[in-house]
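Handout, tutorial session.
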Amino acid sequence: MIGDLRLATIVVNALDMNRAAEFWSRVLGYERKDRVGPGDQFTKLTDPDGSGPSVLIQRTQHIPSEPAPVHIDLYTSKRDEHIDRIVALGATRVDDWTYPDEHDFIVLRDTEGNEFCVIQVDDPA
């Protein structure tokens, strides 16, 4: 952290806010809070132990078909195990991604089509 600047929230666009909130709360083990913002435009998900950033599900009218300029990376020492679990929750593998010869990540799409990566690391902290 530099001064008081810190990562506080990751925003995920969704056409179906309820489906996206359910998906991400189950993937991350986060707690779903009430909808917030004007016209119930957002649903907030929070880390139950308070150590991770919040995830804000934002209702949108369109999910870009090209990769978004910002996405979520999930670190784990058990990548394939988590990929199987996350796909069972409704994610899909991105089969047309061009991976380098040696890679530690797999690209997935959430229930709304947003891309994110699950990355194999020795120490996820």
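The second record follows below. Compare its token runs with those of the first.
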Amino acid sequence: MIHTVTLNPSLDKTARCEEISKGSLNRLEIISYDIGGKGINVSKTIRALNGVSTAYTILGGAVGQTIREVMELEYMPLFASTIEENTRINLKVIDGQGHLTEFNERGPIVDKRNVMEIVYALKANVKPMDVVVLSGSLPNGVKENAYEKMVTEMKKLGAVVILDASGESLKQGINSIPTIIKPNKKELCDLFGVDKLTNSECIEKAKELVAKGIVLVVVSLGKDGAIYVTKDEVYQAMPINVKTKSPVGAGDALVGGIAYGYDQHYTLEEIIKYSMATATGAVTTNGTKPADAKTVKGLMKGVIIKKK
């Protein structure tokens, strides 16, 4: 069973604007609305792959009610702690060159009680070898060590814990040694306090993290695909050439593929192919919509893996 945690969910508005002109009128086209937040995007991916996950989140106001209703319509199991203030709305704009500009709200203030309600619900439902995905930004009012504490609690239950965060919450979360982490190159640079890293240097930094006890470090490299590092193996998966509609949510789809692969007890190479195919499939859809299982299966044939 897969469980996803999204402490700072959102309603995402994604639009295209051929050319963004600062300080003047810009007209948005091809607008789509999707329920979001990184963990919810992971649950959407798993649902599209015909898998099952329970999403744990914090919802408030009319926006939160919309997210709840969409998840019910999509038959996505949900546990939600409630607040009065509206869940945030994020705007993501893609220009004619495919560059993504994001305007994300900070979100409502969340009480410690809301986080504890989610932790209690997880404790009541997570079984040994279940996969728990902790991902996304932390909301207002929640301390940066929230993931660190949650990783510890989930490991006590015998879960496989995937942490997909950034900044201080990632840095502190690593202290509890999650099973898997998935930083992108910038997040890895921030973690080690450097301005830039080559792909080879990313592998060396990932090995340092594995040496701490993390089982799998996946570093997404954008146009260069992703690297997957374990104690014994290093692979680079090359990207598949497809027509991109929206890069939004591709990283979350990658995590969804990893979580699904672990839940299905796939081999590492199968997990690599599956997760790369889900990430690639996500960029061929509008907004943060995931690709369906048939599309992902077809894309897997094009994934090239290089052992390093």
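Points raised in discussion: The mean pLDDT is 93.
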